[in-house]
Amino acid sequence: MAEPLTVVITGAAGQIAYSLLYSIAKGDVFGKDQPVILHLLDITPMMGVLEGVIMELQDCSISLVRNVIATADPLVAFKNVDAAFMVGAMPRKDGMERKDLLKANVKIFFEQGQAMDKVAKKTVKVLVVGNPANTNACILSKYAPSIPKENFTCLTRLDQNRAQAQIAAKLNVTADKVTNVIIWGNHSSTQFPDVAHAKVDLNGKVVPVREAINDDSYLKNDFVASVQQRGAAVIKARKLSSAMSAAKAAADHMHDWFFGTKGDNWVSMGVISDGSYGIQEGLMYSYPVRIADKKWTIVQGLSIDDFARGKLDATAAELKEELEAAIAECT
Ligand code: NAX
């Protein structure tokens, strides 16, 4: 069996981590033959709760988990980690916009970036889930300058999964039949779920989603709005933000980063912009990426019509504003 991977989960006593830990422990993320050492970070007042989570993890009786370290100290949590799920942050409450969260959460990533810089492996693969995820990932990377910028990403896979599921429901197929939906930009209500290049397998025949649905007005309006507002709809119904689906998406994201994408298919990830598609360099922007040998590459050359151009630019403008506000908070 392989040497264990060391994996940190922050916000480990919270609701997303509760589902995510089980996925990681049973091999959904790093493979069924890959042992893991889990570092669980939360704040001091949550150490008692974390103890209970660890008891349950133990009671799952899963042999891939070789050791579990619970701590409130980022220097212990990030020590020699190979992969980091950065979930720990305050979640959005009913009626709260993501901008309200920025002030509270960005400082966490400012401090944790500095700790990561000191003690994590330089090859660590980092996925930021805590909101505002894109901007938090930028701040984390900025304060961990010894780790390559390409190693920092943020979660927009939940939005991709939501979009895929909605298209699949509309066409009465299972979600795995829908591929190459794109989430552009920010994990917020300005994100652009784009099906212009998406495909669907209808009984063995692969056709463009636009052709199969044949209703551009739906795809430009109701579909986009329902994906953008899905997080808020879950909060309204559950009185808590998405957790099971967020954990599944985080697991999908890290799994694909380790194992790669298949054939011509791509997935959406928030990654550092290199200026592709006219987006300002340095923003953490969700793009379609292909992954091979544990490295992501932004898919190039996709046509962008005027409608899409407006959407891509609007979400970039929000990210620019968020990043400026975040940097001001950290100085
Ligand atoms: P919970 O409140 O259940 O858990 C958060 C945990 O983080 C708590 O245990 C808390 O004590 C801990 N925490 C707070 N400050 C910390 C620090 N400095 N170091 C370590 N841990 C700390 O929230 P949960 O529902 O698990 O959501 C976590 C984050 O994910 C929120 O910011 C939420 O907004 C975000 N989400 C992001 C999504 C995405 O697609 N990018 C979707 C789901 C979710 O909304």
From TrEMBL:
The keyword Secreted does not apply. InterPro entries: L-lactate/malate_DH, Lactate/malate_DH_C, Lactate/malate_DH_N, Lactate_DH/Glyco_Ohase_4_C, Malate_DH_AS, Malate_DH_NAD-dep_euk, Malate_DH_type2, NAD(P)-bd_dom_sf. NAD(+) binds at D42, N105, V129, G130, N131. It comes from the Eukaryota. The keyword Oxidoreductase applies. This is Malate dehydrogenase. GO terms for biological process: malate metabolic process; tricarboxylic acid cycle. Substrate binds at R92, R98, N131, R162. Its EC number is 1.1.1.37. Residues 7-152 form the Lactate/malate dehydrogenase N-terminal domain. The active site is at H187 (proton acceptor). Pfam families: Ldh_1_C, Ldh_1_N. GO terms for molecular function: L-malate dehydrogenase (NAD+) activity. Belongs to the LDH/MDH superfamily. MDH type 2 family. It catalyses: (S)-malate + NAD(+) = oxaloacetate + NADH + H(+). Gene3D superfamilies: Lactate dehydrogenase/glycoside hydrolase, family 4, C-terminal, NAD(P)-binding Rossmann-like Domain. It is an enzyme of class 1 (oxidoreductase). SUPFAM superfamilies: LDH C-terminal domain-like, NAD(P)-binding Rossmann-fold domains. Keywords: NAD, Oxidoreductase, Tricarboxylic acid cycle. Residues 156-328 form the Lactate/malate dehydrogenase C-terminal domain.
